[in-house]
Structures are given as C-alpha cells and as structure tokens.
Amino acid sequence: MKMEGPWFMPQMMGPKAKREGGTPFDVVLLPKGEGGRRAHMVFGHVLTLNKASKAKDAAWEFMKFAGSEGGQKHVARGGRQPVTPEFNEKFWAPLAKEQFKLENTAAFIETGILHLAGEVDDRFIYNEVLKEAFDKLIAGHAQAKDIIPEVNRKLQKILDDYWAKQRQ
C-alpha cells in the first residue's frame, strides 16, 4: 500500500501511462488504527488575494470564476481535483473512472487534513521541526510518545513567533 494522491494516475493508466496498456490499480482509504481512526490526507488548491495587489478587482473576478462550477470543470478536465466534494463527485469522479479505470473515487473525496500554505507552511514545518523527529523515529532511536512533546513545543514557538511578528 502506498499513500498517494490522484496526480499519479495518468502515469498508471490512460494515454500517458508509462507502460503499454497501463498498470491496473485501485485505491482505498488507509486502514483504521487501534483507536478506530484513520489517517487521511486531502489536497486542496487555494487561491489567495494579497491585500497589496494592484489588480484586486480583476484578481477577485478570476478567483470567483476559478471557484465556480465552470472553473472547477476546467480543473477536473486537467486531471486535478476540484475544491469541494460535490464538484469532485460531479466532475472529477466520472473522468477518473473513464480515463484511469478508477472505481473507488470516493477514497479521494473523503474529508482529510489539508496542507498548509503561507509563511508557516508544510515545508517550513517539516524542515524546522518534523524532519529531525521523523529521522529519529525511522532510525529507531526514539518512540513517538517521547518525541511528540518536544515537537509540540517547537511548533508552538514557531506559531507564537509568527503571530508576534504579525502584530509589529
């Protein structure tokens, strides 16, 4: 089992497949853990408008279109998932079933954890805090229960520093 997003499907099946005839595959949600919960990531695409923009009205009109039914149809046709479960079911799922022979499209439409964007994004948090923790876990030099308190302290400091800077 490999945790992955829908971007890999064109290389597995369809006209861009890396192997003649494609590689048959299917998808499922990750298994539930001992506590009855499952980890699940969902990827969303977000447009933002900077308050310093010199073309706010035009940017806002584009953003309204991009998030609309018409804009989300373009997103789905490009192989990416739209921004809402409803648009995913309406536009993306039928295309994924046809193009990639994917039956379990619901596994990609479940609610999950969104990636962060901005100054304190996933990459920053990974590089500043999580990489060292993951390295220790993977090497077997520590257990999660021993690392999590320090990870939480470091994350809280990053957030406290960020918000203190915003107030200046």
Structure explained in plain terms:
The protein folds into two domains: about 5-110, no CATH class; about 120-165. It is about 50% helix and about 0% strand. It is built from six helices and no strands. The protein has helices spanning about 10, 55-65, 70-75, 85-100, 120-140, 145-165. The chain starts with 8 loop residues before the first helix and ends with a helix. The relative contact order is 0.11.
Overall geometry: flat
Gyration radius, in Å: 20 Å
Count of DSSP strands? 0
- Biggest sheet: strands, sense, closure? none
Number of contiguous helices? 6
Number of domains: 2
- Going by helix content, strand content and strand pairing, the class is mainly alpha
Strand content: under 5%
Mean pLDDT: 83
Percentage of residues in helical conformation: 40-55%
Query: Could you name the ranges where pLDDT drops below 50 across 5 or more consecutive residues?
Result: none
What separation lies between the terminal Cα atoms? Answer: 47 Å
Give the topology string: H per helix, E per strand: HHHHHH
